[in-house]
Amino acid sequence: MLLFMGMKPLPKILLALTAVAALSIACPAPVQAVPTTYQYTGNPFTTATGNYTTSDFVSGMLTLAGPLAANMPLTAVTPIAFSFSDGVQTLTQSDVRFPGLFFFATGPSGAITQWEVQLQGFGRGSLINTDDFLRGDLGISGGGSGASEAPGTWTSRSVADTGSTLSLMTLTLMALGVAARHFKRAAA
Fold it and tell me: Taking the mean position of all CA atoms in its chain, how far away is CA 46?
């Protein structure tokens, strides 16, 4: 029987904790949304002026609280984080004047099929735009600009749940119980 710091035997509670740990590891919180990061890679600009070159292009990432739904019509979404660059400037949630526009539509697998992302920076004339409807990307900064006439591609990845708080807490309590038992035997 397990004695924990002079307390009465706890075999029933240890058995219950073991069962909870096994269940929480086997079924880790399926109702929680899994953050999903979408990565955009644009095509090189076909026209460029000022500090832009035809080697520059729009690229970026945004993270949503969960994946986009399959067959979703064009819908506004709110990312929990984002960062977009046009080769000259990078705009994140702390660099934009307004929250930004993020509209997406998806196909049967949930992959992005249509979009509009528009970010306006604090600097005068600072803009990054990627748009499937206008068929291309645009970057404007410091009196220069770059544009491509073909939209890029989106990829996504989900961040897997590595364990719920309950399972980690249960495993910690079980480890403390085993350690207490070990020290109790060593003292005897």
Answer: 31
Q: pTM of whole model > 0.85?
A: no
Give me the residue spans of the domains in the chain: 1-29+168-188, 36-157
Half-sphere exposure for 12 (CA within 13 Å, toward CB): 1
What torsion do the CA atoms of 19, 21, 25, 29 make, to the nearest 10 degrees?
100
DSSP SS3 for 29: coil
179 sits in which H/E element: helix 165-187
CA distance 17 to 23: 10
pLDDT in tens, the chain (188 residues): 445 555 555 555 555 545 545 555 555 444 457 999 999 999 999 999 999 999 999 999 999 999 999 999 999 999 999 999 999 999 999 888 888 899 999 999 999 999 999 999 887 667 888 887 767 899 999 889 999 998 999 999 875 555 554 555 554 555 556 555 655 666 66
Question: What element of type H or E holds 23?
Answer: helix 11-26
Instruction: List residues bridging with 85 in a β-sheet.
Output: 59, 90
Instruction: Look up tokens 């989106």; give the residue.
Output: 154
What is the edge-to-edge ordering of all strands in the sheet holding 112-120? 47-49, 144-148, 136-141, 127-131, 112-120, 101-106, 75-76
Q: What is the Cα–Cα distance from 157 to 6, expressed in whole angstroms?
A: 50
